[in-house]
Fold:
Amino acid sequence: MLKPGLLISLISLFVATLPALGANEPSREILGLSLKMTREEAQKRLQEIGTFERDERKQQQIWKVRDASLSHLIIAFNKEGQMRFITAVAREDKEASRVPYARVGDLKKAQQAGDEAIKNFHYQWDLPAGKDSPAVQVSARGRDPKFLTTWSVKRLSD
Structure:
């Protein structure tokens, strides 16, 4: 039988990647957090999946999360209280379930903003505003040719 924490992590990872599996476009969410959430909604979700670590300047917060693939989330809010971005940091320990870039979105549809020759992989997708969500840029970055180090969703209007 799986430990409850591991089961929650596996379910969270599965749910977080569902939209990208059939991928017309990357998910606008990371671990159930989206830019359309209010500060209160985001804080509630973060408390369910992690532990607050610290506030940073420019209304940024760092949270340690319980997840098989991700170690931390960095979120930021604008002056109006809207979430500006969500950045997930990949776990790098031996037990981590590494996240391939392709899980974020279709790499053939991504812009390669990095330079593969110097092991700077940076895939990004610009997504138009939806009925309930702002225009966003989804990005996956790293030095490894297959696995990401960070995964971000940011509001394009900021």
